[in-house]
Amino acid sequence: MTQESTKPLSSVGLACDVLDTLHELGGAGVTELAKELNCSKSTAHRQLTTLYNKEYLVKDGSQYQIGYKCLDLATRVRDQINNYDVISEEIESLAEETGETAQFATEEHGRVVYLYKARGNQGVQTSSNVGTREFFHSTALGKVMMAYMSEERIDEIIDRHGLPAKTEKTVSDRESLMQDLEEIRERGYAIDDEENVHGLRCVAAPVLQDDDILGAASVSGPSRRMEGERFDEELPNIVTRTANVIELNSKFS
């Protein structure tokens, strides 16, 4: 592959930045977008007009927002997941059994990507949604997947994304993280003790196939409910069972 073929196109990169920024802001006009992207208003206007004409954006007055065409793309991506029906059914059951928020995630580009989320009758709303990307080191889902990766892959992820502290409890140095990952492998599940969000704890178990990590299942809830025997034994057992069911069904799907 030649150097020219691997050189990124700045215009395409900027278009992606436009979509990301509109998603984060919930919509924006030309002036606001140009300020956020640190580009000229004429450049921002050309990008918005192109994406609008291609039907990736809609417009309300002077405000541009992401359109339903992106939803169509997302649905097509979801349909590529062979075991999606199994994942959704088991995560719904996990949420119902625990009463908390249950999630399934996998890895892409060195980040945790949420594929399914369900809320039990006591489940609290969290910042994650389907498609949300998070760091590996600060989430139970991420740590339990990272625990089954090669040390080379772990180093690649750390080199690319670093180990930023999301809270004062986040494990943010490599030595401590590697020790944490060893403990996770020994017990078979990971915990997030307010390491990603204040007041929120999480338990996650891996979904493996022939020693390769496919993803992970988790349960999250307020720290006041996620404690004692429930947090140390009951929830890890339930989450691990859910992950095993997904794992077995994925193997034969």
Automatic annotation (TrEMBL):
<dbReference type="InterPro" id="IPR014757">
    <property type="entry name" value="Tscrpt_reg_IclR_C"/>
</dbReference>
<dbReference type="Pfam" id="PF09339">
    <property type="entry name" value="HTH_IclR"/>
</dbReference>
<feature type="domain" description="HTH iclR-type">
    <location>
        <begin position="9"/>
        <end position="68"/>
    </location>
</feature>
<keyword id="KW-0238">DNA-binding</keyword>
<dbReference type="GO" id="GO:0003700">
    <property type="term" value="F:DNA-binding transcription factor activity"/>
</dbReference>
<dbReference type="GO" id="GO:0003677">
    <property type="term" value="F:DNA binding"/>
</dbReference>
<protein>
    <submittedName>
        <fullName>IclR family transcriptional regulator</fullName>
    </submittedName>
</protein>
<dbReference type="InterPro" id="IPR036388">
    <property type="entry name" value="WH-like_DNA-bd_sf"/>
</dbReference>
<dbReference type="InterPro" id="IPR036390">
    <property type="entry name" value="WH_DNA-bd_sf"/>
</dbReference>
<keyword id="KW-0804">Transcription</keyword>
<dbReference type="InterPro" id="IPR029016">
    <property type="entry name" value="GAF-like_dom_sf"/>
</dbReference>
<dbReference type="GO" id="GO:0045892">
    <property type="term" value="P:negative regulation of DNA-templated transcription"/>
</dbReference>
<dbReference type="Pfam" id="PF01614">
    <property type="entry name" value="IclR_C"/>
</dbReference>
<dbReference type="InterPro" id="IPR050707">
    <property type="entry name" value="HTH_MetabolicPath_Reg"/>
</dbReference>
<feature type="domain" description="IclR-ED">
    <location>
        <begin position="69"/>
        <end position="253"/>
    </location>
</feature>
<keyword id="KW-0805">Transcription regulation</keyword>
<dbReference type="InterPro" id="IPR005471">
    <property type="entry name" value="Tscrpt_reg_IclR_N"/>
</dbReference>
